[in-house]
Amino acid sequence: MDKTVLLLSVFSCLSPALEALDNGLALTPTMGWLHWERFMCNIDCDNDPDNCISERLYMQMADVMVKEGWKEAGYEYVCIDDCWPSHQRDAQGRLQADPKRFPGGIKKLADYVHSKGLKLGIYADVGENTCARYPGSLGYYEIDAQTFADWDVDLLKFDGCFLNWTLLGEGYINMSKALNKTGKSIVYSCEWPLYEWSFHQPNYTAIRETCNHWRNHNDVSDSWDSIKSILEWTASHQDIIVPSAGPGGWNDPDMLVIGNFGLSHDQQESQMALWAIMAAPLFMSNDLRDICPRSKALLQNKHIIKINQDPLGKQGYRTAKMNHFEVWEKPLSNNSLAVAVMNLQDTGGPRKFPIVIVPGWKVCDPKCNITQILPQYKEMGVQTIQSDIVFSVNPTGTTLLTITPIKGNNRHFHKLLWKNASVKRDPINTL
Ligand SMILES: *[C@@H]1O[C@H](CO)[C@@H](O)[C@H](O)[C@H]1NC(C)=O
Ligand SMILES: *[C@@H]1O[C@H](CO)[C@@H](O)[C@H](O)[C@H]1NC(C)=O
Ligand SMILES: *[C@@H]1O[C@H](CO)[C@@H](O)[C@H](O)[C@H]1NC(C)=O
Ligand SMILES: *[C@@H]1O[C@H](CO)[C@@H](O)[C@H](O)[C@H]1NC(C)=O
Ligand SMILES: *[C@@H]1O[C@H](CO)[C@@H](O)[C@H](O)[C@H]1NC(C)=O
Ligand SMILES: *[C@@H]1O[C@H](CO)[C@@H](O)[C@H](O)[C@H]1NC(C)=O
Ligand SMILES: *[C@@H]1O[C@H](CO)[C@@H](O)[C@H](O)[C@H]1NC(C)=O
């Protein structure tokens, strides 16, 4: 065994990976479409048949996902959120879909989605009611898990409304066991920490053992303020939440709202870049039947998706913050690094950012290969630590790069860089 291998194995003994839920799923962040942010609880199919929560909506999305390259780009799960069920369970105590809006039932919808080579996600709640006051699963975990398995559903988003927080852990764990007991592999998307944070710090070891991804913070809305607040929350809790992410389990900062109404194109690029850096599940909530080509190209950008889906499965950290710039860095396989430089100043024009300020820039000693992914794809080629590169970053926009060291480098830079994520750089006032 050479010295390098020894050092690496000592390091991995010192920081054992937390155990993931053992269902073989979500080895990279889940990708798909989820109705909530865009379509909410619109049940008015008489007056708004194209946008109401009905089987037609998911069938149309599935059709478009195949036809317009979404499936090919990696978006696989077509997911139902709240407001799908009938207000009454059936005579056997099972949930049933609203008969008027889902005349074929969920099994038939799952068959349709599967016939397109896609997967179907459904929604339920750990408590007495769902957030929109449809029947909750409390007291019915095994029946509901079996119902979803019988319907051939592939993912469950399990919300946390209407349950005393002291029972959240028990409820989420019981449902995880009930899903396992069905014998069908179902991605388990939780909101356990989101509902627990207001009372105390959640146990991320237990959460990672129980769920495939978990929401930590408020619902996203179609606004830059919402995106900024999710990023700020994530960065300010990164030492607690980032170590819990990895193949099989992910922190979920909520849906991509790209392609809607509230974000400028620069802001859409920032959301896409930072969701990739955070190794976030990529659930779009938009109308794929009517989306502008620029948003579509951004959501389907294979270089960004590759960063998100990198098999190493490390979530990135915010590594520097100065003069309304933030630098976020995500280790990639093969010792590469993805770097996002976000300009949070929302007045004025583009601002200059010299690459030497990026903490991970030391990987360029002696040489590295830099590729700019956003705002435009540009191979910048071989650089050294002396290279004088200055980016121009638009207000509320992001420059996204990958940096690959060229041999001769310190092969342990990830270890050095990530040993203490809370190290913040001093503000640099020379920009
Ligand atoms: C259920 O859990 C066991 C043990 O953790 C695991 O080996 C098995 O694959 C799981 N089954 C499903 C369907 O998730
Ligand atoms: C939640 O449960 C705890 C422990 O059983 C109890 O003390 C508390 O009153 C409950 N809270 C509410 C709002 O019911
Ligand atoms: C979870 O399951 C245990 C064991 O069956 C049971 O005692 C407990 O009440 C359940 N908790 C909830 C919230 O369903
Ligand atoms: C957190 O959960 C893990 C796994 O379930 C458990 O072993 C550990 O004791 C818990 N930690 C705390 C502080 O409760
Ligand atoms: C890592 O490098 C090897 C050898 O060059 C290559 O085959 C592999 O695809 C790379 N892995 C990733 C995730 O890029
Ligand atoms: C640098 O990266 C680009 C994009 O991945 C690649 O096409 C190019 O061959 C690389 N150059 C070197 C010298 O590794
Ligand atoms: C990490 O860095 C922070 C800030 O400099 C420091 O307070 C903390 O003690 C460091 N932790 C470790 C484990 O070195």
From TrEMBL:
One GO MF term: alpha-galactosidase activity
CDD domains: GH27 (cd14792)
EC class: hydrolase
Intracellular or extracellular location(s): Lysosome
GO cellular component entries: extracellular region; lysosome; membrane
Keywords: Disulfide bond, Glycoprotein, Glycosidase, Hydrolase, Lipid metabolism, Lysosome, Signal
Residue stretches spanning the membrane: none
UniProt record similarity statement: Belongs to the glycosyl hydrolase 27 family.
Subunit structure: Homodimer.
Name by which UniProt lists this protein: Alpha-galactosidase
Organism (species): Kryptolebias marmoratus (Mangrove killifish)
